[in-house]
Batch of 2 targets.
Target 1
Amino acid sequence: SQELEQSPQSLIVQEGKNLTINCTSSKTLYGLYWYKQKYGEGLIFLMMLQKGGEEKSHEKITAKLDEKKQQSSLHITASQPSHAGIYLCGADKALNAGGTSYGKLTFGQGTILTVHP
Amino acid sequence: EPEVTQTPSHQVTQMGQEVILRCVPISNHLYFYWYRQILGQKVEFLVSFYNNEISEKSEIFDDQFSVERPDGSNFTLKIRSTKLEDSAMYFCASSAWDRGPDTQYFGPGTRLTVL
């Protein structure tokens, strides 16, 4: 089964600093989702990457899918306290297997981001 | 902006009791899901539902669990006889159709506490 490992497990940065969160898969990634979760709340969709080498940006957050390294990275530029939360990567098994997708997502354990003002 | 809603936000129940968690998916979505997150652990897939039937379920989703779309808007998860280990945050999600399920949008969750 697909296993996703995120690093680091937690990250504390000063406001204004850049940071990167990584998500590594035990199998080749062909589709990956990034979500943000505030403690005790729901998951907020950030970005979906489907093609190897694909890169997407939204405001100060950039996500990249590196198919060869079986890894995706999430980069935040000039972090703000509003970026604080838990970042989760999730993979759609079927997008990875190339077969029919029923949308079962497998998630990493999450990266806890704290941004000090 | 359309969103997935869930009720109640917090449910406390006694072990052995039945609970029903409710979700209203985004109105034009066709795929519906339940996930759960035990405190401090990963978000885990429970079940996916499409065209009024279960598409896929995990090994967690045993005979104690059932899902239903009783009308055109609600999607429910029933746990027939709750156990202590069922205490978790339960998330409903929905997605549209784009040659298969599209991005999943999650609700705010229901925190289930089994005493």
Note: Helices of chain A lie at 93-97.
Target 2
Amino acid sequence: RKEVEQDPGPFNVPEGATVAFNCTYSNSASQSFFWYRQDCRKEPKLLMSVYSSGNEDGRFTAQLNRASQYISLLIRDSKLSDSATYLCVVAPLGTYKYIFGTGTRLKVLA
Amino acid sequence: DTEVTQTPKHLVMGMTNKKSLKCEQHMGHRAMYWYKQKAKKPPELMFVYSYEKLSINESVPSRFSPECPNSSLLNLHLHALQPEDSALYLCASSQANGGAEAFFGQGTRLTVV
């Protein structure tokens, strides 16, 4: 089983739609969780950290479920500019080994 | 300022060449990373420096040689690379408390011919 698993997609959604991605992780010692966004041939950019209490940033909401070992990202009112690959990243406590999921590709259609 | 700067942006090198990739950050981060990313794959960790000391080497071949001259700079020296080493090389930095948010540079797109 991979340490961090994501559905690779692609998710093709119309503008204005709500879309959700899940990511599961296998190491229960994991302590830090992030969503990164990566555009084609660009670097990963931090979208948001994921906290136990959940967090929201505009149209984006991230949640963590430690019992079931998954994190989620919800995007409301999708824009064309949201088209990208979304990478789930997990870091065990006290290490520098950020573990990347394979990414979920999102395409928002006009 | 959450900027990590990498140079060059593009590099083409022959298998007998020696070249270096450079990375700089001024966020006061004491952990710096090199990642390699192939097309349609996630980044793979190569090296981690913490407080200017090499703390992780993910069994990277010796033709890749990292160097951390000071807390703001990270280099990756390349020698005798193979065509399969062609990839996007990403530098990142973070606070040195393990599991902090990491910020990536724009990357160097390397082609080995």
Note: Chain B has a mean pLDDT of 95.
